[in-house]
Amino acid sequence: MNTQTRSNSENVYSILSQTQRLRISDGEIKPVLDGCSNASQLLVLIWSQLGDFDNLEYTWWLRREREKLQAKGIVIRAIGIGDRNSGIKFCNYTQFPQEWLFVDSQAEIHKNLQLYQGLNVNFPMLSTSQKAWLNLMLMCAGIGSPGTLGEVFRGYKGDKKAPQLIADEEVVRNTPLPPIKGSFFKNAGGKGFQRPFELATLRLRNMTEVLSNWNTYVPDSAYLTQRGATFLFDSNGKLIYEHRDRGILGFAENMSNPLSFLLDS
């Protein structure tokens, strides 16, 4: 951890400990760190729009590794941009526990933590929403979003440094394609690692879900470009790891295994 991170550690935890937001499970305004005082480690996820594919993918990894996270005694809290309806929809789809998720409709916590707002080119004569959409499209092309194009291509070409994502007997449904059995990827590229098109298929399923329910997931498109962050604290509230997203599909330092900072220690 660098000097800047150490100097900001107390400030980040202080901000979070004083933050109250709407909790999805009961619709009440509660402290986001409520119930976290006895955690051996506390993982706080500041997410972008709940309809952002990054967050759906992040949650997929959390669900995949949930037993290991539980064994380590890691308590998780997340704050995403949206409202209660988007939060409920997000939790229903990802199986992320509603009591762990809070929403911030205007990305105020992101501003307080000085997170990257994304590309912000001012296009004259356009509405706030239209500007956000254009900036988002530019970020998807890699402008103001380092690493995005490389990460997109990794989803198609495969990654031998990443684990296998889809079991041979698993069937991927709810995409524009016919149901795909995991053994298809085995035949196409082998097994025991991320095969070509394997990650792209999971991302296609997420994209289909979000675009089919866009207005629910994204009630206000003004914050489409806002990026998030990951913060890990020890039992004393000391910041022991952080990752601040610099672009789309950049929610982890190691995208081949996004939770390696938790599980390899």
List strands and helices in order, with pairings.
Blueprint: H1 3-17, E1 20-23, E2 29-31, E3 41-49, H2 53-64, H3 66-71, E4 74-81, H4 84-94, E5 101-103, H5 108-112, H6 128-140, H7 148-157, E6 171-172, E7 180-181, H8 183-189, H9 198-212, H10 214-217, E8 229-234, E9 239-244, H11 260-263
Parallel strand pairs: 3-4, 4-5
Antiparallel strand pairs: 1-2, 1-5, 3-8, 6-7, 8-9
Strand order, main sheet: write it out: 2-1-5-4-3-8-9
Radius of gyration: 18 Å
Order of helix and strand elements from N to C terminus: HEEEHHEHEHHHEEHHHEEH
Helix fraction, binned, reads 25-40%
Give the rounded overall mean pLDDT: 94
**DSSP strand content:** 15-25%
Biggest sheet statistics: 7 strands, mixed
Which regions are unreliable across 5 or more consecutive residues at pLDDT < 50? 1-7
Shape: globular
State the oligomer: single chain
**Class by alpha and beta content:** alpha+beta
Distance between the termini: 14 Å
Number of helices: 11
Number of strands: 9
Keywords summarizing the entry:
single chain; about 260 residues; alpha+beta; 7-stranded mixed sheet; 11 helices
